[in-house]
Amino acid sequence: MSSFLHTKWQHLLRDSAETPESIAAALNLDAGKLQKVTDRYPARINPYYMNLVKKYGKPLFRQAVPCEEELEDLPWLFPDGLCEEKQSPVRGVFHRYPDRVILAVSSECALFCRHCMRKRDVGKKKFFDREAALAYLENHEEIKDVILSGGDPFMLSDDCLHELLSALRRIPHVETLRIHTRMPCTLPQRITPELVSMLRCHAPLFINTHFNHPYEITGESAFACGLLVDAGIPVGCQSVLLRGVNDNSQILKDLFRGLLRIRVKPYYLHHPDPVAGILPFRMDLAEGLGIYSKILGHISGMAVPPYMVDLPGGGGKTALSRNCFPEADANGWIRLKNFEEKQYFYPALARPLGPAILS
Ligand SMILES: *Cc1c(COP(=O)(O)O)cnc(C)c1O
Ligand code: SF4
Hints:
Layout: H1 9-14, H2 20-27, H3 31-38, H4 47-56, H5 58-64, E1 93-97, E2 100-106, H6 130-138, E3 145-150, H7 158-169, E4 176-180, H8 183-186, H9 193-200, E5 205-209, H10 219-230, E6 235-240, H11 249-261, E7 265-270, H12 285-293, E8 307-311, E9 316-320, E10 333-337, E11 343-347
Parallel strand pairs: 2-3, 3-4, 4-5, 5-6, 6-7, 7-8
Antiparallel strand pairs: 1-2, 8-9, 10-11
Iron/sulfur cluster (SF4) binds at residues 109, 111-113, 116, 118, 122, 150-152, 182.
């Protein structure tokens, strides 16, 4: 294990490469090319993850380093393609499903993932309206599950998080809390004994983290996940199937088995969302399903997450399996049903040729 384990996470964060010049210098790249991308989508690579990028190359490089293809737009893919803002009653609250909401409590992260589905917001100093959000939750008794997300909630201080979790715990109908954070993977030093002992006071509280490649499972990240699980905090993982990163069934099998070994349960495998800025990572759904079909049944069911797509227009997530794959229209869109049995159109091609023509 490297000495990073004993380096304070605040110091690591402060020493992140964020400017085109600093990233270019660290990785021997052209700052001008990076600049074009960071003008639109900010970059941040902390020293822990930078070290992994240097050690392992492409699969981590692609997740962390801006690439020009991010700027490529298709007029039928939107920055907020999943319509979160339309389903937002209060700034920073996304209420799509009947019994649960997302609170986007921070727009900052320890790494700005190039494939982020919320890249319209991350790094752009968007703040949630704490008082209005708490009032909304109090007034909606149907909400049983509150998900802290962002950005990364662990960018907040321990005190600030404790105060927020305590306020949520005072709402009688809120049963479970979740924190969606990439820190166990991208900056595991953030998972300190102090943070963990604070979190355990707020049980039942679940953490979902985000690993995409077996190279991300290091001594440090295993230690961080172990601290959480030993404190009785269940840890799940939402991975994304990413072109040029993990689009291979053997890599995914190694990833999911590796996660189980560090006691992290694979929760979802997401197809990259149809939003602007993540074209470098999208692949055809048929290809994704082909990869997934070589995993499901081939390794322990404990290790296999459902394969999910998030429906444009705010329909929500729905699982796909090898036995049901609908016919696409000439522009590459298919029809899928959401949890309310309503029909939505989904771009089954990585780059749909036009808007949906199904009706
Ligand atoms: C994904 C998501 C959730 C959580 O969904 P689960 O399937 O319960 O994990 C909640 N709200 C929104 C808006 C989401 O996108
Ligand atoms: S840590 Fe999560 S919210 Fe932040 S950039 Fe990565 S995927 Fe997006």
